[in-house]
Amino acid sequence: MDSVRTVSDTKREFYSLYTRPIDSIYRRVVEELLVEMHLLSVNADFNYDAIYALGVVTVFDRFMAGYRTDSERDAIFQALCQATGRSVEQYRTDATALMDSLEGLSAEDFKAAIDQTESQNPLKDLFATLAQRERMKYSRLFGIGICTILDRIAPDLANQREEREALLSSLSQFLTLGGDKLQKDVDLYRSNLEKMKLAREAMADAVAAERKKRDKRQAELAEKQAAEAAKEAPAEEATETPSSDTEAATPQAIETESEG
Q1: 193, exposed or middle or buried, with CB in 10 Å at 0-12, 13-18, 19+?
Q2: Over the stretch 31-83, which tens digit does the pLDDT of each residue have?
Q3: Would 53 disulfide with which of 58, 94, 176, 188, CB 3.0-4.6 Å?
Q4: Are 27 and 14 spatial neighbours (Cβ–Cβ below 8 Å)?
Q5: pTM
Q6: Neighbours of 169 (CB within 10 A)
Q7: pLDDT, tens only, 123-151
Q8: b/e for 224-239, b at 16 or more Cβ within 10 A?
Q9: What angle is formed at CA 101 by the lines to CA 100 and CA 103, rounded to 5 degrees?
Q10: Whether 50 contacts 101, CB under 8 Å
Q11: Which residues contact 139 (CB under 8 A, 6 or more apart)?
């Protein structure tokens, strides 16, 4: 019987695939996502689906926004997916297909999908498939996928807490998720997004302040060097150019010698 892959194994593989150091505030995001994806991948009750894929893609894209270059960010996500057993193409393709299928839907369609009352509704079949599973391992990433769906079809609900909570509660009951885990995860996700935004702004301010200090030091050094060069210039001229007294005395000396 094969041994269950450990968190250490997954981390080791990730850092063998992406060998460059990751900036501090982003490293925490990557490692938390890596551990969560690993724990789900080895859980017997977990089933991969498009909503989970959307949650993974959303978390990575939103929290890693602004990280260095696009190529480095893509390389990190590639390593993250590969280390946890799936390809980045599968995550991106499934997430994109789900988002594309939501075109033209509204909050009413979301509710109808929960009630299973509309025939032409892609969410209806998706929710029905989830509800029919004998075992369903709920995850925070699945919850964020649901949040992303709502943000896409009903962005106004972000500021209408009661209506959003009612929809999430109905979905939780339909999928028998139990308790208010879905709502708590959505609230925590939104809160962490705001914290990450503030952290990025603070980091940008710190970088700008350090750049300003460096520019000031360079300007002061240049000014000092220019002042020193200006002081040295008259001294050099004095040693190279004869004085006026010497020039005046020379013809007189020549004349005296001639008379003698």
Answers
A1: middle
A2: 999 999 999 999 999 999 999 999 999 999 999 998 989 999 999 999 999 99
A3: 94
A4: no
A5: 0.78
A6: 14
A7: 999 999 999 988 889 999 999 999 999 99
A8: eeeeeeeeeeeeeeee
A9: 75
A10: no
A11: 36, 40, 46, 52, 55
Cβ proximity of 63 and 29 under 8 Å:
yes
| Amino acid code (one letter) for 246 | T
C-beta separation of 130 from 136 below 8 A: yes
The answer to whether 17 and 88 are in contact (CB under 8 A) is no
**DSSP state at residue 117:** -
Calculate the alpha carbon distances from 141 to 131, 144, 239 in Å: 17, 5, 79
Structure-token pair, residue 177:
């998720």
Instruction: Specify the residue for token string 């969560």.
Output: 36
Q: How far apart are CA 89 and CA 83, in angstroms?
A: 14
Specify the amino acid at residue 61: D
- Inter-CA distances, 30 with 36, 63, 118, 163, Å: 10, 9, 39, 32
3-state secondary structure of 14: helix
